[in-house]
Amino acid sequence: MNVKKGQFLSPAEMENVVEKIRACDNEKIILTERGTFFGYNQLVNDMTAIETMKKLGCPVVFDVTHSTQQPGGLGSASGGRREMAPILAKAAVAAGANGLFIEVHTEPEKAKSDAASIMPIGWLEDLLRVCKEIFGIVRG
Fold first, then answer.
1. Where's the DAHP synthetase I/KDSA domain (predicted)?
2. DSSP for 25-59, written as a single string
């Protein structure tokens, strides 16, 4: 089961979530970090959250593109800073993330959802290559 951390929860509070799932005899749990609300229309990422949640005995995935969102930032839709996605992805891998969740599109501006934060597919190959190198260094 993949559980995205609520953007209103602290990483430590995910222990309650994990315990409830385990109480239902499910040990197959992945936790996803995607930022924390910081005022209005802003998410911030505390990379120490990855290690905090890993200590709960679950792999942690970092949601790269949703972490760049600015919820409600465009008034009727969410804004975003897609240019920050590669920076956050590399930081998450360096901080120990077990995986990355990245939404991509051939023409992000035309995406029906999350157009401001979705990453151009053309960025993906280079980003994954660099992240793999970082992974090897950190885990090596």
1. 2-134
2. T----EEEE--EE-SSS-EE--THHHHHHHTTTS-
Residues of the chain with pLDDT under 50: none
3-class SS shares of the chain: helix, strand, coil, % to 5: 40, 20, 40
pLDDT of residue 94: 98
- CA-CA-CA-CA torsion sign (90, 94, 95, 100): positive
> Could you say which of 3.90.1720.10, 3.30.420.40, 3.20.20.70, 3.30.450.90 is the CATH number of the domain covering 2-139?
3.20.20.70
Residue 39 pLDDT: 78
Residue 7: Cβ within 10 Å count: 17
Per-residue pLDDT of 76-104, as tens digits, reads: 788 899 999 999 999 999 999 999 999 99
Here the contacts of 38-45 (C-beta below 8 Å, separation 24 or greater) are 40/72, 41/70, 41/71, 41/72, 41/73, 41/79, 42/70, 43/7, 43/67, 43/68, 43/69, 43/70, 43/71, 45/88, 45/91, 45/92
